[in-house]
Amino acid sequence: MSTKALRLGTRRSKLAMAQSGRVAEAVSQVTGRPVELVEITTYGDVSREALAQIGGTGVFVTALREALLKGEVDFAVHSLKDLPTGQPDELALASLPEREDPRDVLVARDALKFTDLPRGARIGTGSPRRTAQLNAYARAHGLDIETVAIRGNIDTRMRFVREGELDAVVLAAAGLQRLGRIDEVTDFLSVDTVLPAPGQGALAIECTADNADLIAALGELDDPFTRVAVTAERSLLAALEAGCSAPVGALADLLADGQIVKEMRLRGVVGTTDGSRMVQLSTTGPVPETHDQAMALGRELAAEMLAQGAAGLMGERAQ
């Protein structure tokens, strides 16, 4: 067996480096080979435009994929929610490790909960999905909030709160968990309030499709339930023809009777960013045992959502 170091392509952000560092350790244990991180700058990292303006789809992953295809790295780690739903034939999703907490969280001044925010509270988020659902919840419960579009890394977003420009920001629990900063969360947002992005909390490990040995090694890190759950979520996203910055939320979770897993529930939501119109549906069925079954579950729910007018609520459709 080769002892040559494997090259792992990663974005340069603190979060991406932390995620990739964890994967590097796990891959080194599985393969017995050292793993070195190769930092790559993506278009999404250098552009200051809102994701909805630059298209969202693929802006954080294209440069990593190009490095893979050029042989500059052996495998790459992505946040799955950034990954386009169409998978290139030349590349393989070799592993989807066990998912972190998929929920969104609030980081607010004075340790405030979402429902305790004062009237006129300014909440920062760069996500149309979060904006739509926060505004819908506020409308339904008589809350007076203002959502403010922001971009930047976790430190930048938190600084808006610390310096008083915003009352709160919404972030992904998984990112803060991986950075060891989960104690800064002031409120975990229920998925009944804000449904996460398809694949949120999951990582994707990708390599070239012709590298059978590496695919087999990386496959040892794969979590079967994470794979079928996010496959169903991403199938819904694809069937809606929505990009990863469109206002679409989806989550597949297990329904258990005691210790016995009975079924999987898939929930989806689409809404206008002002929260005035929402389509939110769910479906429940046997836990998928294959990729095709998980794909079918997502397509079925998407068809029901489209029948109820979901297409007209999305500001962005995938090209």
Structure, explained:
The chain is α/β, with parallel strands linked by helices. The protein is built from ten helices and 13 strands. The chain has helices at residues 14-31, 43-46, 51-54, 62-69, 128-141, 154-162, 173-178, 212-218, 224-239, 291-307, and strands spanning 6-10, 35-39, 75-79, 91-95, 104-108, 121-125, 145-149, 168-172, 187-188, 203-208, 248-257, 260-271, 278-285. The strands form three sheets. It has a five-stranded mixed β-sheet with strand order 2-1-3-10-4, sandwiched between helices. Strands 7-6-8-5-9 form a five-stranded mixed β-sheet, with helices on both faces. Helix 1 (14-31) links the parallel strand 1 and strand 2. The longest helix has 18 residues, at 14-31. The protein is globular.
**Intertermini distance:** 43 Å
Strand content: 15-25%
Shape type: globular
Within the largest sheet, what's the order of strands? 2-1-3-10-4
Q: Give the helix/strand class.
A: alpha/beta
* Rg over C-alpha atoms, rounded to the nearest angstrom: 19 Å
Query: Roughly what is the average pLDDT, rounded to an integer?
Result: 90
Outline the biggest β-sheet. 5 strands, mixed
Total number of β-strand segments?
Answer: 13
Give the SSE order as H and E letters. Answer: EHEHHHEEEEHEHEHEEHHEEEH
Q: Ranges with pLDDT <50 over ≥5 residues? A: 50-56
Number of helices: 10
Helical content class: 25-40%
